[in-house]
Amino acid sequence: MATSTTVAETGAITRFAGRFFQEGFRPRYEVQELLHQCFVVGYQSLPLVGITGFIMGMVLTLQSRPTMAQFGAESWIPTMVGLTIIREMGPIITALIFAGKIGSSIGAELGSMRVTEQIDAMEVSGTNPFKYLVATRVLATTLMLPVLTILSDAIGLFASFLAINLKGVTSLALFTNNVVSALTFGDVVPAVIKTFFFGFAVGIIGCYKGYYAEKGTEGVGQAANSAVVASSLVIFILDLLAVQTTGLLGLN
Amino acid sequence: MLPAPAPVAAPAPAPAPAEIVLTVANVSKAFGTNQVLRNFSLDVRRGENVVVLGKSGAGKSVLIKCIIGLMPVDAGTIRVLGQDVATLDHTALDQLRAKVGFLFQSNALYDSMTVRENLLFPLRRHWLTHSPGEEDELVRQALEDVGLGHTIDMMPAELSGGMRKRIALARTLILQPDIILYDEPTTGLDPVTAREIDQLIREVQQKYGTSSVIISHDMNCVRLTANRVALLVEGRCYALGTYAELKASTDPAIHEFFSE
């Protein structure tokens, strides 16, 4: 029963995503609402993502230092932390934080609009609520998560630089040189590309759960909760697929 | 305290024969095994108010949601302003909906927007080529029609139930629709406010010549707003006539609604 429900839901979300590509790029373009959503999901998430990135960089550096010191490899800390943050930790942590904050808020907002008939009201006033509410939010999450990830990576690396200087001395120039010289095309580009998919998953799942919320206020809570759970799970699945794909392309 | 509403006389029957703007023909709708509408038929003429009366859960709201295309019918035809709703694509349905207003039972005001933004929303969506000045004038006019000009910059949460109902009606009126569908417009309101809403429905009918389908089980609302009453019993249009005709009926199924 649970399996068939999951399969049915996966199919429904896929159709919902198909509708996004079918309707989302046709005029009329809701540019003003898209910019507003970019502001909401991007700018307003920045403090949380920034703090998370800062702590991630600092903790990673402080915890790896004793182990690296045992091998006399402290000078490799910037390289290791840089690769870890840019390839994996930055994208995945930022995406999970993003799913928690934005996925739940989209699920709850659209869910509450559904149960109070506001979505129906849009429809009967001749507005396509899918385009106005869903397409703008999904586009905003898809475009903003990569930007947030890059900012989080930068903040995390700067935190790493500070953490190194807590117990030793290194210059910002040397730290940057160590990080950048170890990075290749195959480290940076796939890591950025996958965040577009993470952002799309958070947006489309949050919107789907909210758009089809039922059963009054209980349904709103369920929409918010299941949006976070499902999008977090999908982020991990997409991450696994990304690793496999980059491996097949010889980029790992 | 609100002043008591002016006494409202029962509306006179609309002059016949007038053009039919809405036809519901042999419509059936079921949810699983629950058959809500069974071969329901109804015609609405231009400029008349038809009240669909029935018990709670009888399928009244389902009927008007089918009329506006929010729900598909299982069988039968609904023609609004000459167009078969079931055959319209998204664009054509949007264009038709610009001519059909819908007042939700819950009002469905956009709670993240001010009253002004709520009223402007249908205008912007329709690409109407109004200048900002003309839009402001339309908003002001719609709010004046419902007597709430001072609420223009307030949020829906700051308004009382009756005021929200009026704002929702103003939002419906701003597109100057040919037909308005009212879903239980007086439910949940105190008797004085409910009579004010009844009066407003009459005023809208007289001022703009709109046709209306009003879903209600409030007999005062029925008496004050209906040109004709359709009684929905077990999914069928059991009786159709003026308030006085139905009230005079000796049929037990009709009498139980009008016995008070």
List the helices and strands and how they pair.
The complex is a heterodimer of chains A (252) and B (260).
Chain A: H1 2-23, H2 31-41, H3 46-70, H4 77-115, H5 118-124, H6 129-167, H7 172-182, H8 185-211, H9 216-248
Helix pairs in contact in A: 2-6, 3-4, 3-6, 4-6, 4-7, 4-8, 4-9, 6-8, 8-9
Chain B: E1 20-31, E2 34-45, E3 49-54, H1 60-67, E4 75-80, E5 83-84, H2 90-97, E6 100-103, H3 115-125, H4 132-145, H5 161-173, E7 179-183, H6 191-208, E8 211-216, H7 219-225, E9 228-233, E10 236-241, H8 243-247, H9 252-258
Parallel strand pairs in B: 3-8, 3-9, 6-7, 7-8
Antiparallel strand pairs in B: 1-2, 1-4, 4-5, 9-10
Helix pairs in contact in B: 3-4, 3-5, 4-5, 5-6, 6-7
What does this protein look like?
The complex is a heterodimer of chains A (252) and B (260). With 252 residues, chain A is mainly alpha-helical. Chain A has one domain (11-248). Helix content of chain A is 85%, strand content 0%. Chain A is built from nine helices and no strands. Chain B is α/β, with parallel strands linked by helices and 260 residues long. Chain B folds into two domains: 17-99 and 178-260, Rossmann fold, CATH 3.40.50.300; 108-176, no CATH class. Chain B has nine helices and ten strands. In chain B, the strands form two sheets. Chain B has a six-stranded mixed beta sheet, sandwiched between helices. In chain B, strand 1 (20-31) and strand 2 form a beta hairpin. In chain B, helix 3 (115-125) crosses helix 4 (132-145), helix 4 (132-145) crosses helix 5 (161-173) and helix 5 (161-173) packs parallel to helix 6 (191-208). Chain B is globular and about 55 Å long. Chains A and B meet through helix 5 of A and helix 2, strand 6 and helix 3 of B.
